[in-house]
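ok here's the first one, seq then struct tokens
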Amino acid sequence: MLFIVERDKNGLIIEINQVEIAIWINSKLWFLNMNGWLYLCGMSEKFTNHMLGLQLPTDPRWVNIAQMNIEDILVDHAYCEQKAASSCISLIVQYPDKKDLVDMMTPVVAEEWSHFERVIEQLNKRGMKLGKQRKDEYVIRLQGILKKGGGREEQLVEKLLMNALIEARSCERFKMLHLHIEDEELKKFYYELMVSEAGHYKNFLSLAKSYMGEEYVSKRWKEFLVEEAKIIESLEVRGDRMH
């Protein structure tokens, strides 16, 4: 949990705000609290990655290569959204008895599918085709982090944390595209999706903690982050993959 402390000119504390999540956008750090989105300036990009939990930032070369291969990025992105919707549907089907999960995942399914439709729209505008699905080495490697065995809720938490991690990395990649690509329409597009992914990341973590508790989930989440950093470091920097 993060707290933002506001002080007066004499350094005395005048307000303390509890913050749920933070995102770096256009040289401003946006915080989500119970009153909505607020922003503060002058915070570093490294701090943003810390707020998402990511241990290793994306290689900065990726966004430059991606911009030169935007058709491949859009195609891969479309399939990422399709898989995100399918993953949420799978959770609902596997755990229909968990009302809080069903209630939270149902609108996420609709939102992820709408993202798929929006990516297809961007492809069509540019005279591009969807093309075949590519092998997702990142997600395949993430699946190797998952613990085998354990109780039903423990397995559910593993799946929720994996989804949270994918959303966090996607949020970071969307931020890079928003900040650095030249296409103005896509800059706005990826800004909107970045904010959405940040919300999904928070939802998955919140659900996980409701099933196995703060202490267990925080410990396991740190283990996920360490292993994910190793995966990112070992993967080739490619401009035809979103992850």
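and now the second one, same deal
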Amino acid sequence: MRRPKSPLKTIFIQRIYYFLEVLIIFLGIVIFMLIPVFLLPFLIDFFFLNPVIFEPLFFIVRAAIIIVAIPLFLYLSNFIMEPQKKKLILEEDVSPSKNFLSLFNITKKNFKYQLLYGILLLFLIFIPLDFFTYLFLPEMLSYSSIVLNPTGELSYNSYFMESYYVFLLSVIIIQISVAIYEETLVRGFLANRGSVYLKKMSAVIITSFFFGLGHFGYIFVIPGIGLPIIFPIMWFLQTFFVGIILAMLVLRRRWIFPVIFAHAVNNIISAHSIWNFIHGNDFSLMSFIVYVPLLTISIFLFVWQFSRIKESLSIGFKEFISYFKNDSEIGENWLKKIVRIMMDFLFGLIIFMIGVFIL
């Protein structure tokens, strides 16, 4: 479909329609999240007394709900908004629900490549980033253990206080569910649908900013109030950077499994660092037992897959740089470009604020 020749007004309207669709999906997720509360109140009462069981169940239900809610409400939003948005979308948009669900498609032919990309993301992005953060800013472990509030009365992270085997089982279930939830919402829905309304890199920046703000938001939780601001800033920078890479991969490859895999495994590893810190073990223990072997694997993978990595970096860098160039297709000049970039960050902030209140 031909890209519309859009003045600033149309660029703004595109983001408004994208925001309206986001709002509909967010409300749909909230509605679905209320279902288990109203249908199974006795289970809620029972499991609050048994956090070891309740916490994994809560995250499993949350992950399942978002996978069901998003395609259903995408269908509804498409039915409501289709007449108005036909002239605004930048790509063909036949079935938003099918488009979303296609991201989860895994075949015998592509599984090994999806797994390879997931492994590369894990070992070349996530693990080095976490290791060097903890190495040069070890106070991050203390900050994480505080803001996650595992001893809080209504905490969903009390499994950090359990014995290792209870923690291990809980962290595997919970962090797989967290990765499914976050990647489905941020990359599977927000970035994917944003690329329909906006230029791809605008969708990447908006959703990565949203993702980064979600982690910076720990500055507002009660245990984190008064702690040095450098820690939430570091979390923001980490997740904003990682979010850009993950969103670009999902939009280019049309695969969501690699980012879920890398996200989940890294969270499990990182949670072990936090568990060890809470239980009085020095990070050097994790460094030599876990991170040094993993970083050795990272070096091996980098050498082995260098040509693939080089190609991906070249393509990704060109796409990223294109975001800061004038869009000749709409007659964009430097002023319109600055307005477009400011609007992207503004809408990322607005979506984050709406998400905080209703999700």
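notes on #2: Residues 51-85 form the longest helix (35 residues). The CA atoms of residues 269 and 290 lie 8 Å apart.
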